[in-house]
Amino acid sequence: FPGGYEQVIRALAAGLTIEHGEVVRRIEYGDGGVRVETDRGSYAAAHAIVTLPLGVLKRGAVTFSPPLPARKQAAIDRLAMGALDKIALMFPRVFWPTESEFFGWMSPTRGEVPVILNLAKTAGVPGLLAFVTGRYGEHVAALPDAEVQAQVMRVLRAMFGADIPAPTGMVRTDWRHDPFAYGSYAHIPVGASPADMDVLAEPVGRLLFAGEATHREHSGTVHGALLSGLREARRIIDG
To answer: What would the pLDDT profile of 19-67 be if each residue is shown by its tens digit?
Structure first.
């Protein structure tokens, strides 16, 4: 996405009051409106659109008063939050084929860096972006940066030769342990169904719900999250 997603956020936020650095602790709602309590204060409004990630809802990190209806809580409990993490390595030079957007790796260790994005092609920089998920992703999340880098480099040396240069830097995500996400995006495990996402999207009085997990057709995507927000905004406007 040329220029990054931040430009979309800046455009959507233009003219709005955005409060940064406040952690929501409690949401009270009733016929008279809603009140949102944070670690710094509280805010009252006629309606609230809740966009908390499914992982945060599953953890109960935010208290609802009164509690959410049993129907909605059951849907939250049945749905699951997955984690797709990225490990980006930068290098002093490009040593891999530049024409390919992705490289695949069939490892004897299941899930070990199966897909690598060629940043030289997509962003014009000498970097590679590895994707990890599943049990291997859980394994990597528990390791220090040095060991994570060493594991990815073992794969790259197996793919491109032992004489490739050492990386100049590395950054990685850890969505499983992010207290504002607890995962990357929702998925439907055994025992759940797409209908649970519809239930998650249902309003509860003056509380409305948006986010990728509430859009059954486009869950797990940025455009699904955006469309769900537009859906709930229209719901308020239409009364």
So the answer is: 999 999 999 999 999 999 999 999 999 999 999 999 999 999 999 999 9
Whole-prediction pTM: 0.89
CA distances in angstroms from 68 to 27, 58, 228, listed in the order given: 10, 12, 20
Q: In this predicted model, what pLDDT tens digit does every residue of 94-106 receive, in sequence order?
A: 999 999 999 999 9
